[in-house]
Amino acid sequence: MSPIQSALHPAGAHAAATATLFQIFLGVTGFFFLLVLLFLGWAILRRDRGTASDKRLRLTVAAWAMLITVGLFGLTLASYATDRSLFFAGHDQKPLRLKVTAQQWWWEVRYNGATPAQTITTANEIHLPLGRPAQIELEADDVIHSLWIPNLVGKEDLIPGRTTDLQLLPRQVGRFRAQCAEFCGLQHAHMALDVVVDTPEQFAAWEARSLQPAPAPRSEAQKRGHAIVTGMHCSGCHAITGTDAFGTVGPDLTRVASRATLAAGELPNARAWLTRWIADPQAIKPGNRMPRIPLTPAQRSDVVAYLETLK
Amino acid sequence: MRGTMRILALLLLGLLAACHRETRETDASVPFSQSGLATTTTVIAGGAASSRPDPRIERFEKSAWHVSEGQRLYTQFNCVECHAHGGGGIGVPLIDDQWIYGSSSPQIVATLIQGRPNGMPSYRRLLTEEQMWQLAAYVRSMAGQVPKDVPPSRGDTAANTPPLTLEEARPQHDSNLDAGSR
Q1: Which of A247, A287, A289 is facing B24, going by the closest CB pair?
Q2: Distance to chain A for B134, nearest Cα, Å
Q3: Predicted confidence (pLDDT) per residue in B26-47, tens digit
Q4: Does residue B25 belong to the interface with chain A, where contact is any CB pair within 8 Å?
Q5: Could you report the predicted ipTM of this complex, rounded to two decimals?
Q6: From the CA of A214, how many Å to the nearest CA of chain B?
Q7: SS3 of B35, please?
């Protein structure tokens, strides 16, 4: 299995082009570096032989200058070719459009549909179909962030009050890890997200599932949890489609149980971690925007029981 | 001469002791209770108002961290919709000197918890009490009621009012105080 966060293991057209360019640069500059060291060593060995004639010196310098010119020209050409291939990758297909909004310290992901009912809002997880270009609109709500999905594409900054965009074209199915690449405050290092590249069928299934309202609670514990989540502090910040919770400050929880991680890639999404997170978010990510909510252990386990049904 | 310079240098070094970096109180482990909150009026029938100030007033109003968190919540919970950035609009202004339900932090928190007639909703189930105290501290900073080194120097939004740090503290006229004389 290839690494999930590595620019040297490209899984997208853009990352592949950049990785190739990196290898060309590494090869050419490495070759010249070795050459310089070789000449240096040779000069040290021959230091007692006196200076060469003017004619030979001129010839050597001219040859060296030629070599450098050819090398630089080659690198320039390679850069230009890469730039073109970055620009034209997936240019002929209609891209999937989505919007990522960065906030301290998590990512909101929104797939705008034709109507509000066809809009999917999720958090800290991007789903992309294989082989279809995606155009991600990037915005920030508070400070400058930067989205970096090393396996798929280079970084792009998210700047408050400005919209930037990022094109990518996934070429490999898999789960990759992306990260904020611009220092954005206390929990910058703990601001990651998962990027899942699905086959087109899997993506369509995910899309259909995500458009459904949240499942209704069934068991008694789930019902009690539902009442707490929608009636108490949780709903001030979080939204769950189809319920009375429609806060827009924190991550959307409609499909929270289907995501692989919690708190922007910080914790594995498992019952024990979810319980701990709800009990004291500040102990896990100090300074994050989620306050400690006064709940009894029984209430907490009801809340977790309900949240686990949100798939 | 040299001796004087040395003493002066030592004294200047001593100034460093005055440097203090506020720690962010991200862990609000102090339990809150609504029982300790002020009611809307500070006038108690047949007696004087309680003179012992709530320790939470100082804890929140003297902390730059809490005031800036209050500023963030003020935007995120859309206080701006009615109160604008202090100037009021649909709701009452928050930087004038007339306060119907009291202008102290505990009174503002009580207003947030209970809601008030004619449009102010209750935030009892949306905000934790710590967040309400942060909001109250920020609201007070808009009228220059917190120490000058505490409020954020400028807001994140366009404003035609001077920065909070330049805000002059005005005497706050608490309408509740009139209750006894009427």
Answers
A1: A287
A2: 12
A3: 766 555 555 455 555 555 555 5
A4: no
A5: 0.78
A6: 21
A7: helix
Alpha helices in chain A (DSSP H): 13-45, 54-88, 200-210, 220-231, 234-237, 271-279, 281-284, 297-307
Rounded to 5 degrees, φ, ψ at A67 are: -60, -45
Asked if the C-beta of A291 comes within 8 angstroms of chain B's C-beta atoms, the answer is yes
CA–CA distance, B143 with B87 (Å, rounded to integer)? 10
B48 secondary structure, DSSP code = P
- Using CA atoms, how far apart are residues A234 and A231, in angstroms rounded to an integer? 8
Where do we find the tokens 């001129």?
Answer: A58
d(CA B111, CA B134): 14
**What is the C-alpha to C-alpha distance for residues A191 and A185, in angstroms, rounded to an integer?**
10
Residues of B whose CB is below 8 A from A142: 72, 156
| pTM confidence score | 0.84
- Hey, what amino acid is at A224? R
**Token pair in block for residue A212:** 């459904």
R_g over Cα of chain A: 26
DSSP structural state of residue A305? H
Amino acid at A70: V
Strand blocks (E) in A87-243: 96-103, 106-111, 120-123, 125-129, 134-140, 145-149, 153-158, 164-168, 174-180, 192-198
pLDDT along chain A (311 residues), means of 10: 85 94 95 94 86 82 93 95 90 91 94 89 94 94 94 94 93 94 93 94 94 92 94 90 89 93 92 93 90 90 94 87
Give A 248-267 residues with CB within 8 A of chain B: 249
Distances in whole angstroms, Cα of residue A299 to Cα of each of A252, B22, B161: 21, 35, 45
